[in-house]
Design brief:
Layout: E1 18-21, E2 26-27, E3 32-33, H1 37-41, E4 56-64, E5 71-79, E6 82-87, E7 92-94, H2 97-107, E8 110-111, H3 113-118, E9 125-126, E10 138-146, H4 153-158, H5 160-173, E11 184-188, H6 190-193, H7 196-211, H8 217-230, E12 237-242, H9 258-267, H10 271-277, E13 286-294, E14 302-304, E15 321-323, H11 330-347, E16 356-361, H12 369-379, E17 381-382, E18 413-415, H13 430-447
Parallel strand pairs: 7-18, 8-9
Antiparallel strand pairs: 1-11, 2-3, 4-5, 5-6, 10-13, 10-16, 10-17, 11-12, 12-13, 14-15
Helix pairs in contact: 7-11, 11-12
Organism: Thanatephorus cucumeris (strain AG1-IB / isolate 7/3/14) (Lettuce bottom rot fungus)
InterPro entries: FAD/NAD-bd_sf (IPR036188), GMC_OxRdtase (IPR012132), GMC_OxRdtase_N (IPR000172), GMC_OxRtase_C (IPR007867)
Keywords: FAD, Flavoprotein, Oxidoreductase, Signal
């Protein structure tokens, strides 16, 4: 607040602009994370008509195209090396997520006909929007060394005594450092980051970049809306203070880019432990702006059926090919550069100024716009909020599902996950996705006469 950002006393009003403490998914009585498995599933697990099969891989939606509308008859999947098919009496609901929903649609014959034929898949519904419109929030993290005497998460990571004390506190009272989360955050607009002259230059660069492209009808609508948003007082950029070391290089040479990061997480969920908890290796305590995140990026990306280097490209167990296309619009790059400079402004204001020694990453020598730009290009990464690859939009614009979440051209196939969100939000996605699921349940019950 000492740098001019106002407090937001009602962040759930629809306006996220300002500083506030966000609600967290933690049961404060037990100190345990609250999520879909121990809430929604826990209270429905006893039902005889619900079976959750873990470690199974869906491979294809079985579609019947003998009539006017395509009918989903079931889902084929692999489980412990064997193939099975679950038959559907009423509907098939696809919730494989932004990365895998379009892959399953394409494997089943729904998508861009040219793409399907290339992979020797018989087209059943021509929907060119499948796998397109992939959007995500992107971020960079700046890090500062903390003076001796201040405790951060890093102290717990490398100090056995503090770690044991935190563990004992958690076991006794279910609170303390081990239940902490990044709840304080802020959303700001461009006018807090840069001068009017720089903002005008950003807008000019945007339209110059767009003139070089051939945007789809959906992208044209999106760019028109996003450009209006950029001119308004709303949260285009998120800044979160994280009392500990954040990750800037995805474990150095192991991860060349975010497409590789997503691929590793897709094939090896256990890698998430390595990526997010193996960074407590520093002997000094640090403070990082964990997310200098761009929440309304202008880049549009795509998810293709498979990695092109694979010969058996219709193999459903092969991860999809993801082109993140980061920073393809210069305005995204410029906003992140200004965000890094704004984080430095916060660090030099009280009370943090008296707590910090110096910036660690990027190094203090990285000060010019050119140097910061290079650092941003080297360190930008995903915030893991992908959306949009089966967008709810008019079919004429490239939409994949209608306002009842049904896939165009099908009678009983719905998509219920983040892939239906047609345009990114200036917010974290968890509550929105829960809301989509709740709304979908109401739609399905209503259509079934329940």
């Amino acid at each position: 607040m000492n740098v001019g950002i106002p407090a937001n006393l009602d962040p759930d009003s629809g306006n996220t602009f300002g500083i506030y403490n966000a609600a967290t998914s933690t049961n404060r009585t037990t100190g345990i994370r609250s999520y879909a498995a121990n809430t929604y599933y826990k209270f429905a697990a006893h039902r005889s008509n619900l079976v959750v099969l873990t470690e199974a891989q869906a491979t294809k939606i079985e579609l019947d195209n003998s009539g006017k509308d395509i009918i989903a008859r079931g889902v084929s999947f692999q489980f412990k090396g064997k193939a099975f098919t679950a038959k559907a009496k009423k509907e098939v609901i696809l919730s494989a997520g932004t990365l895998l929903t379009p892959q399953l649609l394409e494997l089943s014959g729904i998508g861009n006909t040219n793409v399907l034929k290339k992979h020797h898949i018989a087209p059943k519904v021509d929907l060119p929007g499948v796998g397109e419109n992939y959007q995500d929030h992107i971020l960079v993290s700046t890090t500062y060394e903390v003076k001796k005497g201040f405790v951060t998460y890093d102290n717990i990571g490398y100090n056995a005594t503090l770690e044991a004390a935190a563990e004992a506190q958690y076991q006794k009272t279910h609170d303390g450092p081990l239940t902490a989360s990044n709840s304080m955050l802020s959303y700001i607009d461009l006018y807090y980051l840069a001068s009017s002259g720089k903002i005008a230059h950003m807008h000019r660069s945007l339209w110059e970049d767009l003139e070089k492209e051939k945007p789809t009808p959906l992208q044209k609508e999106q760019y028109r809306i996003q450009e209006l948003w950029l001119r308004k007082k709303m949260g285009n950029v998120e800044i979160i203070l994280h009392p500990g070391k954040s990750i800037t290089d995805h474990s150095s040479e192991r991860l060349a880019d975010d497409a590789e990061l997503i691929r590793i997480l897709w094939t090896n969920p256990e890698e998430q432990h390595f990526l997010y908890f193996n960074y407590y290796v520093h002997s000094t305590s640090v403070l990082s702006w964990k997310y200098c995140g761009l929440f309304l990026p202008l880049a549009n990306w795509s998810v293709d059926l498979h990695h092109p280097q694979h010969l058996n490209t219709s193999d459903p167990l092969t991860p999809p090919n993801i082109d993140p296309n980061y920073l393809s619009k210069r305005i995204d790059q410029s906003i992140l550069v200004e965000s890094v400079k704004f984080a430095d402004k916060i660090a030099k204001a009280e009370p943090l100024a008296s707590m910090l020694v110096a910036r660690q990453d990027p190094s203090p020598e990285v000060s010019s716009d050119e140097d910061i730009t290079k650092w941003v290009k080297d360190n930008v990464r995903t915030l893991h909020h992908p959306i949009g690859t089966a967008a709810m939009a008019p079919k004429s614009l490239g939409g994949v599902v209608d306002d009842k979440l049904k896939v165009y051209g099908t009678r009983n196939l719905r998509v219920v996950d983040a892939s239906v969100i047609p345009m990114h939000l200036a917010a974290h996605l968890q509550r929105t996705i829960y809301g989509i699921a709740e709304k979908a349940a109401d739609i399905i019950k209503n259509d079934s006469g329940l």
